[in-house]
Design goal:
Shape: elongated
Largest sheet: 5 strands, mixed
Strand content: 15-25%
Length: about 375
């Protein structure tokens, strides 16, 4: 009833007269009954009687109901979101049948609607980053199946950042053949070319390709190696019966009250396990100083910046969604879907506390890392 009333008001304005009203001047056209149209909207499928106009010099175009419109704009905007949340194109007709009515939705219709997601991603991936005041940059990779005629998987490379106001922003989503130096170098260079200011701290795992790329493209940033990855790597070299014991010692390193206590705990680990578990000790020694960088930064941020868990949790959402599809049809489909999932995850993130004093502390910590890098002498000797 509301739609039909709005359509009739449009016709009145177009003809410059109401029902059965006559004008002295020549009429612009005449009403000639109605045509029934079906429209899918939030309350289900409804039938609307759309007025017909004849004898007009120009065709009547409704702003309420476009000529070929079969569903409301609100419903169309919801469908790509459902796709991001996990509903595959084959599921729409079955899941939304009661809402969409007899006409339903074809797979091609859903695919066309999802072009809006791809268009949004295409514009987003080229946007200027010069206004993004980045403090912390999280980098990580994840292997994703993309249909290219083979069974291999491609490396999904993600760049997430924390701004100076504490909010999080997704900077880049890329697809590389693998987590190689060239793939990561291309990723980081794209961020720099689009205006990203060099971050104060990079939080990463131990990927050799990523480490080399960072030194080439972002040599001035301090680096924090993920302590969760380091812990898992060390424990994998320890027999299972002793892993709980060794893990407690590692926790005393990465969850110490201060840097000095952490350094003492590393020496204790070397003294206790250097001979018994030499391979595990060697793994801990490699880049150990980078694992302790977070101690120089504000204590209120330690929990968030000592690991790359921000991205690990986001990858869980990506896996939940992509496991439904198994293999994505092409690169753009893969990246657009991952972009949608990660944006949904980012908007649920509460951010971290940032204020003038904390920002100043980050700047001072960054300068100190440049002037006085953390050194663990026994680890340097052991690794050598």
């Amino acid at each position: 009833m509301i739609l039909e009333a709005a359509l009739n008001e449009e016709v009145d304005a177009f003809l410059n007269r109401g029902w059965y009203e006559r004008k002295a001047e020549s009429p612009r056209g005449y009403r000639n009954g109605t045509r029934t149209r079906k429209l899918q909207c939030g309350s289900g499928e409804v039938e609307v009687r759309k007025p017909k106009i004849v004898g007009a010099e120009e065709p009547f175009q409704s702003q309420v109901l476009n000529r070929w419109q079969r569903r409301s704009e609100e419903l169309e905007s919801v469908l790509p979101a459902l796709y991001v949340e996990g509903l595959s194109t084959r599921d729409f007709k079955r899941a939304l049948g009661p809402l969409l009515g007899e006409s339903g939705l074809s797979r091609s219709s859903i695919s066309r609607l999802n072009q809006a997601l791809k268009a949004s991603f295409a514009a987003w991936r080229k946007r200027d980053l010069s206004e993004e005041k980045v403090m912390y940059l999280f980098l990580d990779g994840y292997y994703l199946g993309v249909r290219k005629g083979g069974r291999e998987k491609d490396a999904l490379l993600i760049a997430h950042a924390v701004r100076e106001d504490g909010s999080r922003v997704l900077l880049g989503v890329y697809l590389g053949g693998r987590e190689s130096t060239e793939s990561w170098k291309s990723t980081l260079q794209d961020l720099v070319d689009r205006g990203m200011v060099e971050p104060k701290l990079l939080i990463t795992d131990g990927s050799p390709g990523l480490c080399r790329a960072m030194k080439e493209v972002l040599p001035g940033s301090a680096r924090q190696r993920c302590t969760a990855h380091k812990t898992r790597n060390v424990l994998s070299r320890v027999k299972k019966s002793r892993q709980a014991e060794v893990k407690r010692v590692l926790t005393s390193i990465f969850h110490a009250a201060c840097l000095e206590d952490a350094l003492k705990a590393t020496s204790d680990f070397h003294r206790r396990y250097g001979k018994e578990f030499p391979t595990a000790t060697e793994v801990l020694a490699k880049d150990l100083a980078d694992c302790l960088t977070f101690y120089r930064f504000p204590e209120s941020h330690w929990k968030r910046i000592r690991t790359s868990n921000v991205l690990e949790r986001a990858f869980l959402e990506v896996r939940r969604r992509t496991d439904v599809i198994k293999r994505l049809p092409d690169e753009m489909s893969a990246l657009a879907l991952v972009f949608g999932v990660l944006e949904e995850d980012r908007m649920r993130w509460n951010g971290i506390k940032m204020g003038p004093e904390i920002r100043q502390a980050i700047v001072l910590a960054f300068k100190r890392m440049q002037e006085e890098p953390i050194r663990v002498e026994w680890a340097e000797k052991f690794a050598a």
